[in-house]
Amino acid sequence: MQNALLQKYISKQPTAKHPTFRPGDTIKVHVKIKEGDKERLQVFEGVVIARNNTGVSETITVRKISFGQGVERIFPLHASIVDHIDFVRTGKVRRAKLYYLRGLKGKAARLKERAV
Length: 116
Prior knowledge:
The protein contains 1 helix and 5 strands; from the N terminus they run αβββββ. The protein has 116 residues and is mainly beta. It has a 5-stranded antiparallel beta sheet with strand order 4-3-2-1-5, with no helix packed on it. The longest helix has 9 residues, at 4-12.
C-alpha cells in the first residue's frame, strides 16, 4: 500500500503515449541529446530485454550490437529525454527477462518473428 500523498502525486504525472511493446520486440528509441546550447535527437535501435517497475518509474532495457560489441541502455519511459519510441518488429520469446542474449553471438542471438 502506497502513501496517499505519493499516490496523488503519481496520478498527476503526465504519461507518455508510447506504442505497446513487449520483451523481445525491436524498437527505436529517439533520445534528446544536449550538446552545448544545441539539442538533437539520437536514435537507439535494439531489442527490449527487460521492462522494470510500473507507472511513472517504469524503465526499459534495450540492447543492440554496435561494431561487434554489445551495448545496453536503460531508458526511463516517462522521462523527458525520451522523445518518442518507434516499433520496428516483434520477437518470439518465452520469458520476461532476456538476459541470456548477453552470452549469445551472431545468428544465435537472433529472435524469430512473432505471429501477431
